[in-house]
Known about the structure:
There is one protein chain. With 569 residues, this protein is an alpha/beta fold. Helix content is 27%, strand content 17%. The longest helix has 17 residues, at 189-205.
Amino acid sequence: MNTDPVQDQPAWWTHAVVYQVYPRSFADSNNDGVGDLGGIIGKLDYLAELGVDVLWLSPIYQSPQHDNGYDISDYRSIDPTFGTLEQFSELLDGAHQRGMKLVMDLVVNHTSHEHEWFREASSSVDSPKRDWYWWRDPRDGFAAGEPGAEPTNWGSAFSGPAWTLDQASGQYYLHLFAPQQPDLNWENAGVRSAVYEMMNWWLDLGVDGFRMDVINYISKDPSLPDGVVPAGGLRGDGGPHFISGPRIHDYLQEMHREVFSGRTADLITVGEMPGATLDEARLFTDPARKELDMIFQFEHVGLDYGPGGKWDYRGLDLRDLKTSWNRWQKGLADTGWNSLYLNNHDQPRLVSRFGDDSRYRYESATLWATLLHLQRGTPYIYQGEELGMTNVPFTSIEDFQDLESINYYNEATTALGRDPEEVLAKIRIMSRDNARTPMQWTAGPQAGFTTGEPWLALNPNYPTINADSDRSGDQSIYRFYQKLIRLRHDSAVVRLGTNTLIEESHRTLYAFTRTHDGETLTVLGNVSGEELTLPPELGQGEWVLGNYPAREALRLQPWEARVLRTTVR
């Protein structure tokens, strides 16, 4: 890991493509309605045929599942919902035999409230592990349990206060997410040592790295000051006091020394970092600093938010995305590395959010795939993205299981008095459940995902949108993704070429070049449902790839993507 990608021997992950598996929704082998390890094992050939290099598994650890596995009660056990440690070893071996690596989801900003560490910490104020979590007395002048008695005014990411009262001790504990997810206190060396020991255990077992959940939240300002309450909000924004906090670089460098230093395997470390800036990303991913290989940043997936945040959906102005992506491409061109994604388990479906999921579903899905995969960085595919799976026509709040969506609905309709139908319309667009409905394999019962009752209702369009029909159709999104993956594997210009944005102010044309060693790829995308006339200088070159069979040199069809090659020797 941490090989400088701009040197003569680029890191292996510069030519890799990662596929994210959300195990609960991928494939069910025992027909209990929940995806599992056996289901993933049964689909390894599908993934190998797609051509991906790395499988990233969302959490499969022991968990009470209050947040679908991101509340871990035992880091070294597989939750029975998903299978056994023996099955995990079978999955790991199967992936390796097919030339794929396997990455675990590392969730160490917080644990489950059922983890033995928290059980012990909450057993007594004198517990040796009390300081493994963040505990505080009520606010001065308030009695425990009174409204406003929380130690700070911070709100949690899932609505409500970021503090919950422990009745037994009269103190509050901090949770940036659900009350069942108490935050670990990384100021405590014992916490860090226990986490590193666990990570080493998994690497010794043979896993190939970690995607680290909200890893830039682990360092808090120990004074835990109040945050600014935004206009129209109920609680303070604690972000400035825990996003990329005061000791974050110390912790990541220590993690590297204690876990990764000296290992000879080709590993990968990816940090999910909400709120990370470009300047911070350069530090986090600078190989000389020995922290992380790449990060997930969130700037581009917040561009369609309104002033009220995620649930204040306004739609995307393409010019904003071009500006954002170009800034990150330029900013990490000489130091660090980009993670490229538009879909994951926390984002609504790409083709519904940014494309046309009805008339031009194939075209817009493949256009966005082209624009993403031909940037400089490591592309990530979220399960079903390669089939053009869409958002779900949820009809009521009872259709949702996502904690974030349900909590927001309850708070918005009750505490803020907003119209339930208007709130539901916002949730329908942006809810995480859009990405979490079961994978659509066939047109048969339950989409071939299970013969039982799925844990979350299927998208009703599965009879027409599924892996079988897509892979056998004349217009196959899956086959297009295969071509993009092969192009990255085979082309040095895709892996390492410089990126130059063209026509930055154009409202519907996304055009850029990649140049390396005398070769230039020109990538053209018409991000609209109308025909587009190209500037004459952009129609030149040898055709490499596109999502339309017929091509007019200076005209792009609705949602057309085109890649052209020119060579100077």
